[in-house]
Design a protein that fits this description.
The protein is an alpha/beta fold. Helices cover 39% and strands 8% of the residues. The two termini are 19 Å apart.
């Protein structure tokens, strides 16, 4: 992901809510897959319910979807390599939406650990109060103070685990 961000003027990506969608996107030439909190809330959460984009769904839903997408891409890679076809690099970066972290600093830290374990290449956190989170296009959002936002978006994961960067 880091190389793509520094080598290309933009990174083409669409959101996927199934592994098959991700396979189709990569087969079409997209360079990354986005995992949208809005789409997870609406259709791909672990509660198997439809929610508004307000962090009401189970906090492990995005990491679970990341795992399903990774499994699908791994299987596509196995199938094409079994057929001696090496034309597509199936392991594209997955960019994940962590909403507002589903709580305080510890919640954001635990969520980030789940995202890393599930294979996210990049994660973004919103700067909204978690308990009053609303979809970005809606009015009436409650933003957190900059210091609180910085604490939640800096989970301080060991560099031996992976590379995690945040904007200061």
């Amino acid at each position: 992901m880091w190389d793509l961000l520094h080598e290309a003027p933009y990174v083409a990506a669409l959101s996927a809510v199934t592994g098959n969608q991700a396979i189709q996107e990569v087969a079409a030439g997209l360079q990354a897959v986005y995992v949208s909190g809005w789409q997870v809330a609406a259709d791909a959460n672990e509660a198997a319910a439809m929610y508004p984009d307000q962090s009401l769904y189970p906090a492990d839903s995005v990491p679970a979807l990341l795992r399903r997408i990774q499994n699908a891409l791994r299987r596509a890679d196995e199938i094409t390599h079994m057929n001696d076809d090496h034309g597509i690099s199936w392991f594209v970066p997955l960019v994940a939406d962590a909403e507002a972290g589903f709580g305080g600093v510890l919640n954001a830290f635990e969520l980030m650990k789940m995202m890393i374990a599930a294979g996210a290449a990049a994660v973004h956190f919103e700067d909204q109060l978690s308990s009053a989170k609303k979809c970005g296009h809606l009015g009436g959002k409650v933003l957190v103070r900059r210091a609180s936002s910085s604490r939640n978006s800096s989970p301080r994961v060991s560099p031996r685990t992976c590379a995690v960067w945040t904007r200061s």
